[in-house]
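Quick one, T. Sequence first:
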Amino acid sequence: MSASPEPGTPILVVQRSVPPKQWQGELIVHRDDTLAARIFGAPTAWAATGTYSIIWGTPGSRFVCSATFTARKGDVAAFRLTSNWSLIDLRRAVRFDVELAAEVRSVLGNSRQAGSLIDVSVSGAAVEVETRPGGSQMEVGLRANGYSARLLCDVVSTHSVGSKTVLHLRFRDMTPPQLAFVRQLVGQLIERQAS
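Structure tokens:
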């Protein structure tokens, strides 16, 4: 499936850096492999050699492409697209094994417990805990790469592994900073797997 945004479409520009940076904007023009957008809170200097992701659409129907910065004039930035637009399919996101300390809090009650993040994707995670918390929603606290995030999750399923319980979670209502945190973590795992 392919699509392209119309002028006036809200977009999100994400610089693939450590940590990732992102700006909201509005598309001015899109032709072939070029795009110009008014960027709100635009940086004073764009990374000329950096790689960016440009995202547009509504939840469940979001598109992304890779781009490089080419020019700016005031708050308007121009980019050259280096990939085709592709649909972001969070339901088919690849999960990556990881060992990371986590704190799990039941949204229903006030129970908190230490846990271990055992896999993660851009759409969800699996966390191993001592006992199954009550409720169908959890808040998971994570710390990675010098940053931390508290992520609201729906419990999709659970199963036992020995004396422990594994919670299979789907992220919900993520803010742009939370999404950037998860994407940075997944990006690091992808790079580690490739090396």
